[in-house]
Amino acid sequence: MGHKHKYGVVLDAGSSGSRVYIYRYKTAEYVKEKEDTKELGRLPKIKTKKSWNFKVKPGISTFGDKPELVGEEHLKELVAFAEEQVPKDEIENTPIFLLATAGMRLLPKAQRDAVLENVCAYFQKHSKFQIPDCDLHIQVIPGETEGLYGWVAANYLLDGFDKPEKNDHGDGHHTYGFLDMGGASAQIAFAPNATEAEKHANDLKLLRLRTVEGEAIEYGVFVTTWLGFGANEARRRYVEHLLGASPGEQEVPDPCLPVGLLIKPTGEEIEPGSSKATGKLSHLIGTGKFTDCLHSAYPLLEKNKPCDDPPCLLNGMHTPAIDFGVNHFVGVSEFWHTTHEIFAMAHKDRAYDFASYQKQVSELCSRKWSDLEKDIEKEFWGSKVDAKTVEEVCFKASWLINMLHEGIGVPRVSLEQSGHPITGEANKTNAIVDGAEDKGFLDPFQAVNKIDGTEVSWTLGKMVLYASSQMPPAKDSMAVGFGSNLPGTKLPSDFQFASGKLAEPTTGSASDTAGDKSWHDRILGSSYSRRIPGLLIFLLILALAMYLLCGRERRLSYWQKVTGRRTSPSWSRRKGAAPGLFSAKLFGNTSPSYERVLEEAADPDDFELADLPSDDQVYSDSSNSSHGRTGRSSGWATPSTRGLSPDVSRPSPKKGYFDPSSSAAAGLGITPFERGGLTVRTESRERLAPAPSLLGRSRTGSPRQSPLVAPLKEMVD
């Protein structure tokens, strides 16, 4: 019986720290041998454990000016932890990915490249994990890629892929939208309804997954990111606006702070009566008026910016219309923390309710800061809630409400005052808990952190894609990954393979796994055929070198066997003929004597010494290999991909990573530095190019395509 499990390691290198996640999935070989028909028609079953993640601080972006220290001072603990969790006999077969987000995006290119180069070098030297290509295993991913991975993770945990009949949101729509908000940016990802998907097909990303039995499923997903719309960046912009509206004022009222709280514009608290409060620098004083706070934060949405490509939501950026009748969203990160860290007592067992949430935030923010400090000391909201969290929650809540309802357009549904827009239920206080068991998230918006005990992390989405790509493809099954939603069966130039391989030139791909081809087929395949001339030259040089090293006697013997003629001890040479240097050098004379050659009127005493080659031959290798960031591999080497990776720069609000004119338009998740070689393990599942048999294969962006019907068991230990 084949191996039951394979493992994968993903490092989320964020701005505040790096967290390693370990995942495990069942192999297709094992599932087929067990004849588990339930699992054959679904995506690979991935498991993780609460103890399988570990975080170190600070983030790798802090090593921008000292990249040589990132290994010993940052990665060492993470690698050691991962090696303790993964079975020793599986470490060399386990891929490791380090994907950096916001913090690294802000570094200058030279520093960013240096950090990533040192990360790769450390993994190669101090880790046995599989890392065949540092270009794709170690990257700074754009916000769009992060959002797409999050969309995959949320729908995987909610059974949006595997149980469409239990997640029918109307009109055959069965996937969930995904919202993520960090400190610097916010992301949205969703599959539009059929009408919008057809209307905005060019704006979608084609995402392709593969079931255990090898069948491909496709989704058209819209995903975008709003830089500067994260909670911390929004607060910074808000304070700048507040101070700009009151120039020269020493004490500026802030309705988004609890009553009486004094802070510097940079956020540090000022003790009452302190000399800093009476200095010349401006400072903020809380007034606790949450309604005013909502109005003050609204302009930060930039709704008044021109929309060059309607429709738009925020900051003049194009977004297909959202049909909340079928598009139901889950929100993670700040969407969860801001609604649950302090207000968890009221909301831990229920869906987000606008009216109830706003009422509780308003009550908290209108309290005196001195009273709130006493509750913090008593750990009224738990040991993890500190003064900074309480201080910031009023503004973050106002920003979240503005983003959800004024920006994205989520309906202001009050489950206590009115019935559910779909089910008509008057109160769903406990229904969400029951619904979590059958994945029944039917509200327009639901903040989540974990589903069935598994964290909704974009790292899980990355592993779902990778594990899916490792399933042997059925006939006519195309490559797993994502790229531009172009018509036809050819892979777009920006297509990102899930298992560590850049896209082939746009020749199409019927399958992407080398497992179905014999070794001679793979050598003669498209990815190897370009190497054949160089390989033949190398073999010729190697044969010549071995021939020269074997000595004159053996060379002469081999020559005689090849030509079928006997050679005299000494070779004659007519007058004017070539001196036979080539033959003498290659085969040598059988003796050091010479021969007298009489010809015409030549003097009988005229003679000439034959060339006598030395027995000692000196060979030198003049090739100077430039070793790029190529990872360890036990398989054949693939051609260099130098030049395929575009520079990842901070995207402008109007020109993101999907804009063909953008510097990052060549694809999502490609790191902005060049490396020398590219090697791929023989067990990589992303090697085959599309076969002509797929020409004419239909593909649509409709989220209803290729539904899976088999149930997905919950992820448990």
In short, what is this structure?
The protein is of the alpha+beta class. It contains 22 helices and 21 strands.
Care to describe what's here?
With 717 residues, this protein is of the alpha+beta class. Among the domains are: 5-224 and 457-516 and 630-694, Nucleotidyltransferase, domain 5 (2-Layer Sandwich), CATH 3.30.420.40; 231-303 and 333-412, 2-Layer Sandwich (Nucleotidyltransferase, domain 5). It contains 22 helices and 21 strands. An eight-stranded mixed beta sheet has the order 15-14-7-8-10-9-18-19. A hairpin with a 5-residue loop joins β9 and β10. α3 crosses α5 (109-126). The longest helix is centred in the middle third of the chain and has 22 residues, at 387-408. The model is unreliable at 415-440, 501-530 and 567-717 (pLDDT under 50).
CATH topology of the domain at 5-224 and 457-516 and 630-694, anyone? Nucleotidyltransferase, domain 5
Radius of gyration: 33 Å
Shape: globular
Mean pLDDT: 74
* Number of DSSP E strands: 21
Tell me, what is the CATH class of the domain at 5-224 and 457-516 and 630-694?
Answer: Alpha Beta
Major sheet: 8 strands, mixed
Name the structural class: alpha+beta
How many H/I helices?
A: 22
CATH superfamily of the domain at 5-224 and 457-516 and 630-694: ATPase, nucleotide binding domain
Strand arrangement, major sheet: 15-14-7-8-10-9-18-19
Beta-strand proportion = 5-15%
Distance between the termini: 22 Å
Detail the poorly predicted runs.
Answer: 415-440, 501-530, 567-717
Instruction: Give the oligomer, counting copies of the same chain as homo and different chains as hetero.
Output: single chain
CATH architecture label name of the domain at 5-224 and 457-516 and 630-694: 2-Layer Sandwich
Active site: 146 (proton acceptor)
Organism: Extremus antarcticus
Binding site for ATP: 183-187
GO molecular function, one term: GDP phosphatase activity
